[in-house]
Structure formats: C-alpha cells, structure tokens
Write a structure and sequence with these properties.
alpha+beta, STM4215-like, 7 strands, 18% helix
Amino acid sequence: MTLLEEIAQLLHDLGVGTYTPNTAGGTIFLTALPTSPDRCMAVARYGAGEADSRLPYDEISIQIRCRGSAVDARQAEQDAQNVYDALHGLENRELAGGTWLALAVGIQSGPVYIGRDQNGRHEYVVNFRAEISRSTPNRSE
C-alpha cells in the first residue's frame, strides 16, 4: 500500500469522503482530480525536507485538493475545512498500511482558494506537514 493510499484511507476512515481503491466511484482520489464527479478531492505529495539516512522517520508534505460545483464555492470550501479539521493535530495513529503517523499539522490555518478549474468548478487546497515513521531496507526502528 502506498503512502497516498494510506492517507486516502485515513480520510475515508475519518468520514470526510469515500475512498474506493479498486472500483469506480468514491470521492477521494490519488494525485489528480478526475473529470467527474464535480465534488471530490485528490491527495498528493509534494516537496519536503531532507530524510534521515538511519532513522525510520520522515517529514512529508501532503496536499488535499477539494473541488465542488461551479455554482457555489462554499461546497468545496466546506469539504476542505472538513479535511483540515480532521487532520490538523492528528497524532499517534497507525495508518492502514502500517505507517505510523506521529503528527499532522496544517501548514496554513485552513483552506486556501485556488480558483476555478477549466469547467468553472471552485477549488480549495489544504496543505499539511506530516511526521511519519516506517521501516525501509536501510533504516529500522
């Protein structure tokens, strides 16, 4: 299970959307937003700090992009706020694939409006710094 899959499953478990990894449908997607449905979110990783070469600890950056309808921006903003409320300050939790989430911290103090997509649908993002621990072949606990 990839780290993005673990985060998507976590969002599902926290009740902010539906992640269905092996079937069509759901509202939580990995990396990019699909063309439909209008109301959905995507979980992506982006640049972060240097990793420790010996300890099984990483500080990662995660972005959740929320999209709503073209009619009302409040839908996407509320979805993004729900993600922020569910993740900001979450700590000491084992994720579905065995990764240990030590702490998730919102980088901004809430959702950030990024405009409309090519179909006029409103979009917001929330960005997080997450401290995780997981063993790799060259690092162990």
